[in-house]
Prior knowledge:
It is a single chain. 40% of the residues lie in helices and 16% in strands. It has 208 residues and is of the alpha/beta class. It has a five-stranded parallel sheet. The two termini are 25 Å apart.
Amino acid sequence: MTDVALPQADEQIPLEGVIKGEVLRMYQEVVQHPEGEFHFYHGRTAAEMLRYEPAWLDRAPAGAVASFAGVGNPHVRTRLQAGEVVLDLGSGAGLDSIIAAWQVGPSGRVRGVDVNPDMRAKAAAHAREVGLTNVEFLDGQMEDIPLPDQTLDVVISNGVINLSFRKRRVIRELFRVLGAGGRISITDIVSAKQLSQSIVNDPKLWAS
């Protein structure tokens, strides 16, 4: 198989900007028009395929479920306990944050971080809809998480880290904000082989 050259440093920054803009636009479309057709599974159909508890989906706001666009179920291995502090990295419309907030209870706290202001506004509205006061949604990049060092018990993330051009930086940030004995539960898309440049340069395939 022929090796495919990665973008050079001076090419990567513009490409990153284009792809991030397209990804933001696409997921904003999921939030604003969840009834639409997309090239990836979303909504309750996706959540059920990924084995989310039906009781969670029935209890959660309909809008949070309809706008769900995750690629897995990070809650399967989190073992969240009452009183824990959780980061939901790339919190989207808030479904994973809401589920985590139910599990940690009033004595715990969940912080969702997302770069999309519409997503954050929707997520906050969904949390208020179910009466949650232990969850907040912050503006921030996953490569520069807006939280102090060693302040978290658990990090969850669902189909977001694959969108970063600086994945090592993201992982370093996760370990920075986690306290001693902290846990990480990530579901994501991973490629076992080098992708062709035509795939790397296609924004729609990044958001899939």
